[in-house]
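Example record

One chain of 340 residues, shown exactly as stored in the release files.
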Amino acid sequence: MTVTTPGLVCAHHHLYSTLARGMPAPPAQPTDFLSILQQIWWRLDVALDLDIIHWSAKLGAVEALMSGTTGIVDHHESPSSIDGSLDVIADACAEVGVRVSCSYGVTDRHGSEGSRRGLAENDRYLSSGGRGMVGVHAAFTCSDDTLHQAADLAKKHGTGVHIHVAEGPDDHEAGARLEGLTDETWLLVHCVHLDRDLPGLIAHNPRSNMNNAVGYARPATRPNTVVLGSDGIGADMLEEFRLGYVAHRADDVTASPETSWTWLENGYVLLPECRDDVVVWNYDHAESPWHVAFTPGTRPITVTSSTGETLLEGGCPTRVDVDEVRAKAAESAAKLFARL
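Predicted structure tokens for this chain:
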């Protein structure tokens, strides 16, 4: 017996990180969140080029689809290859059949020219009809002027700002700096160390928060609508749901999986069309949070888009050759690792 659900949504992803698995060890052992950024992610994003971005996004989209995830809200950074990068991601996802909302993470880490180019990429992409938001890396890597420019650009395009907020202690002033600037259209990611309530959706990323040892965000205590993301660690949203539940349960023994399931379903606020996609699962209780929370190995058999197109058949994508995508991604990963 099988059961169907709508397509799932990953409400915060970094598709550029798909090829990071197995990357060379950093020059020095990271010992805190800031050094993880400096030694790993800020070295990796500088090494990206458009070809690597393409295959990283394509493999990430394939793996999302093979997990029943038909929509991704992506946050991208590639300081050495900014111009046109959002189109590369959008096109790669479209080839697979996965919906994507793109944004470029503006930052002053590479000087005012770097932030200007990041803002320009968001503006260019959104002006051309691309679906997305205005991206900002985080308050602690941006000046107040850059934050205000991003907010103004988002208003110009009638969208929100997609930004990491108080993920680690180094961004502890984010709440004070963003107060009065955010609104309900913003996507506030992590909020682990946020010291006040701000308007906007909150994207909770339990696996990433554990992996980076930044602490538990306690999303259930916030008045905001909470959505569930992966922060770049794949897009298996049933697995992320399970982690969301057990992290909540570890903090509150009265917690039930229904809360984490609500966070998962709230992703349709960002990509509502995914609700009309149909996923057939190999488990006959895949629509039940109480079953899925304790049942590993729940996988999609078939995914049909809202237009009626079969995107996944027998667990394999129909638009692309998964073996070819993996082979090309492996070649790009080798090139990326050589630069690191």
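Notes: The first strand starts at residue 3 and ends at 5.
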